[in-house]
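Example 3.2
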Amino acid sequence: MTAPWRLSPDDPSLRDVLDLIQRSFAFMEGRIDPPSSMHRLSLAALQDQCRDGEIWGIGTPPAACIFLTPRPDCLYLGKLAVDETHRGTGLARTLVELAATRAAALGLPVLRLQTRVELTKNHAAFARMGFRKTGETAHPGFDRPTSVTMEKSVPAHPARA
């Protein structure tokens, strides 16, 4: 498998990334409420993510991807997806390690993500990668938690230490 690479807003692989996310998140249909924000993704939204943050992929076509969005206090991880045929091969861990490297380079001390309350296997997978639960949030209109927030500290970049 190839090393992770950053996609640009005009990258033709963005269509493959959109397809990968839709396939990888399809299992959530009927399991999570409200439905996944994946349904609102479009090619234009991915191009915006490339401009406002980052999208990284592994493989051609992408077998795994992750969205990275710098925030003032963290690097936010979103839309981590691994094609079903490549799950269990370490691609998600590779992308999380890449995120930690990017956060350190940006001087951001924490990786943060959210995963749905119902997706307990995801909670466990992120815990194995060093994330810990830091809170719960509710989507608008819900009176119960719908998402779990998880964080992982990022060691200082050697150049900044």
